[in-house]
C-alpha cells in the first residue's frame, strides 16, 4: 500500500489505526468486537471516515 494520501478520498478509521502501527488483523478484530470509537461513537465499519481532527479511540 502506498503512503501517498489521495486528497479526494476521506481517511478511514482503518487507515488511521494501521498508520498508527496496529496490524490490519488487529484493527479488523477490534472493529468486529465493538472496541473502536470515533468521536465517542462506536464504529464497526472499517471504511468509516475518520479525518483529523476526529478522535479515534480503542476500548477494551
CATH architecture: Roll
The overall pLDDT average reads: 90
Strand order of the largest sheet: 2-1-3
Most strands sheet:
3 strands, antiparallel
Strand content: 15-25%
Per the CATH scheme, the topology name is Structural Genomics Hypothetical 15.5 Kd Protein In mrcA-pckA Intergenic Region, Chain A
Secondary structure: helix percent: 25-40%
Protein name: RNA pseudouridine synthase
Walkthrough of the structure:
The chain has two helices and three strands. By secondary structure, it is of the alpha+beta class. The protein has one domain: Structural Genomics Hypothetical 15.5 Kd Protein In mrcA-pckA Intergenic Region, Chain A. A hairpin with a 2-residue loop joins strand 1 and strand 2. It starts with 12 loop residues before the first helix and ends with a strand. It comes from Actinomycetospora atypica. This is RNA pseudouridine synthase.
What features would you highlight for this structure?
single chain; 60 residues; alpha+beta; Structural Genomics Hypothetical 15.5 Kd Protein In mrcA-pckA Intergenic Region, Chain A; globular; RNA pseudouridine synthase
Amino acid at each position: 500500500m502506498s503512503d501517498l494520501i489521495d486528497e479526494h478520498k476521506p481517511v478511514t478509521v482503518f487507515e488511521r489505526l494501521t498508520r498508527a502501527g496496529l496490524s490490519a488483523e488487529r484493527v479488523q478484530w477490534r472493529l468486529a468486537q465493538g472496541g473502536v470509537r470515533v468521536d465517542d461513537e462506536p464504529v464497526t465499519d472499517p471504511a468509516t471516515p475518520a479525518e483529523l481532527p476526529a478522535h479515534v479511540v480503542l476500548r477494551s
